[in-house]
Every structure is written in C-alpha cells, then in structure tokens.
Specification:
single chain, mainly beta, OB fold (Dihydrolipoamide Acetyltransferase, E2P), 3 domains, eight-stranded mixed β-sheet, five-stranded mixed β-barrel, 3 helices
Length: 337
C-alpha cells in the first residue's frame, strides 16, 4: 500500500535523460492545486509518457511514489512501480513561465526557479565573500510589489546590476528557505538568470519593513576569544569523533579517514571602532571568513593557536562587515595604513 496520498497534478518541464554513475534518471516539475514541486524519475521508460502529458497539459494522478529530502525539500520520486493515470481536476494548468507575484511565493516550493517583477526598495553594498570555489561578489536587496516584499541575494555578475528605486524583471531566480523564511537567490549558473529593466508598477507597493541589519566597522582588534578548531564529516559536515587516524560521524554513521575530514575553525573578535573609540563590539568569525583571516595573516589552518592569535592581534586596522542581530562577521579586510 502506498504510504502517501495520491497526487493530482499537471506535469511540467520534463528534462532529457541524465546519468549519474550507472544510474539513469530525468527531472520534472509538478503543479498541484496549492504549490509547485520538483520531481525525479528513475524509470526512464516513463519519460516519453510524462513528456507527452506535459506537452498536452493533461491532468494526472500519481500513485505509489516516494519522497526524497536530499536537497532539503520533499521531491516527488517516480520509479517502475509508480502508476500515472489520467484524471480530472478543479484547477487550471498554469504556465510556469508566467510572472509570479511575491505573495504567491508562499505556495512555491524551495528550489524552484521563478520569474518575478520587483521594485528594488533597498540595496546593500556589494561585498566579496570567500567560498570553496574562491572569492565571489554578493549583494543583498529587498524587492517589493503590490502584494508583498522579499529579500533577494545577487551573486557574481548579477551584483551591481540593479539600482535602488528601479524596477526589474528577474527571470529565473531561485526560491530559497532559511530559518523558516523564504528569500530569492540568483542561481549558481549565472547565465540561467536574466535581469532586465521594466516599467514601474502603477499600483501602490507593499512597504518593506525588514531592512538589512548588516553594519560596517573600521577599527583595531583588541582581543581574541573562543578560538575553536574541529573536524567535520566529509558527507554531512557535522562534528566527528576522532580515534587515531579514523573519524566517526554520529549524525550519518559514516566512518572515514581523518585526512578526508574538513578542518573547521571559529573564533570571536573584540574590536574598537576607530572613529568612535567608545564603540566596542564582539563579533563571531565562522569557517569561510576564518579562512580569509588566515589568508590576511599569511597562515594555514594547521597553524598553532598561539600563532593565529598573535598574528591577528598584530593587524593594525581592519574593516569588518557584520550582522548587527547575530554579530556574525560577513566579511573582513585589512586596512593598509
């Protein structure tokens, strides 16, 4: 017996057959009455049928499917035992290329690409963040329309592509979910997203109430506390228990060689603002920014705690961008005197 309720929906965007190792599969999107969801099918002989149903905008019922949480969302998985039969629905086929309103994003599943028109109500300065693939430009904005407002993160070449007060069509931005709150993100494949200027809205816009809490501070590092190094699982990035040359992950039950684990480092800085010496803040530095701190100090993560602390305190002046609510450092640079 299928443990999930049958899904009644329309099929969209059936992809070509893909291959991962020896496994063949294809992707698709389903439109239900309440939302839009991703799907993957490992029964490649069903592709022709699903593609035909998508082309004909035919309503279907999906029976004996499963769910996957691999990408942090509940994707619909179709296999050889899944039954797909025609049905009738009380809602209409929707072209997913239609422009989506901000309010309707509440019914869009995280991970979906959407087309949305928005007025840039607030724009933060562009920053460079250090990712595993290298330094990347990042800019945060809040966009609004007559139905609501939402945060938009512009990455790479899309940073500095809009101006505050302008209105744009954002074609293929990804819906993301963090801390139970949705926001929009330009996709990793930058060419996939197109941003173009369009006419302003004629209706009144929803006011933006949640402006960015990012602050900049230039000052001297007075002290360092809570320097912490730990190894994390190469699969799930959780802390591991080390026994000799082996590491054990209590989260995903994986055993691995210690040299396969990523060394993560965190610390806290106590900084005095140069322009206002009475203003002193304690901020937390996490993994990616910590790597940048080491780079500024010409050190490696394997350096001793004493070497790291001594070199940080030797920095004459730094410019820090941090979240004033969490005190998490977003970016740091050395200021040359």
């Amino acid at each position: 017996m299928n443990k999930f309720t049958d899904i009644t929906c329309y099929i969209h965007n059936v992809s070509p057959i893909k291959k991962s190792g020896t496994t063949k599969y294809f992707n698709y999107v389903i439109q239900t009455k309440s939302d839009v969801r991703n799907g993957v099918c490992f029964a490649v002989d069903k592709r022709e049928t699903l593609d035909s149903l998508a082309q004909q905008h035919s309503p279907v019922k999906i029976h004996k499917y499963s769910l996957s949480n691999k990408f942090g969302r509940k994707d619909i998985v179709i296999n050889k035992n899944t039954l797909i039969t025609p049905t009738t629905l009380d809602f209409k086929y929707q072209d997913l290329d239609d422009v989506t309103s901000i309010a309707s994003l509440s019914q869009v599943t995280a991970g979906q690409l959407v087309k949305i028109k928005g007025h840039v109500a607030h724009l933060s300065p562009t920053r460079t963040v250090l990712l595993d693939a290298g330094p990347v430009k990042k800019q945060e904005a809040f966009i609004n329309d007559p139905s609501g407002y939402i945060k938009l993160v512009l990455w790479g070449s899309h940073a500095d592509s809009v101006s505050e007060g302008s209105t744009h069509l954002f074609d293929k931005v990804r819906v993301k979910l963090a801390h139970q709150e949705k926001y929009l993100n330009t996709p990793k494949n930058e060419d996939e997203c197109k941003i173009s200027s369009v006419a302003n809205f004629t209706e009144s816009l929803q006011p933006v109430e949640n402006i960015s809490t990012v602050k900049d501070l230039t000052g001297k590092i007075l002290g360092v506390t809570n320097l912490n190094k730990y190894h994390c699982c190469c699969s799930c990035n959780k802390n591991v228990t080390i026994k000799g040359n082996l590491a054990f992950c209590n989260n995903c039950s994986m055993t691995m060689k210690l040299n396969c684990c990523k060394l993560q480092c965190t610390l806290k800085l106590y900084i005095q603002e140069t322009s206002n010496p009475h203003n002193r803040v304690r901020v937390s530095v996490y993994n990616d920014v910590f790597s940048k701190v080491l780079g500024i100090c010409n050190l490696l993560a394997a350096s001793t705690d004493e070497e790291i602390i001594e070199n940080i305190l030797d920095l004459e002046l730094v410019k820090v961008s941090y979240d004033a609510q969490s005190n998490k450092v977003i970016d740091i640079d050395q200021v040359k005197i």
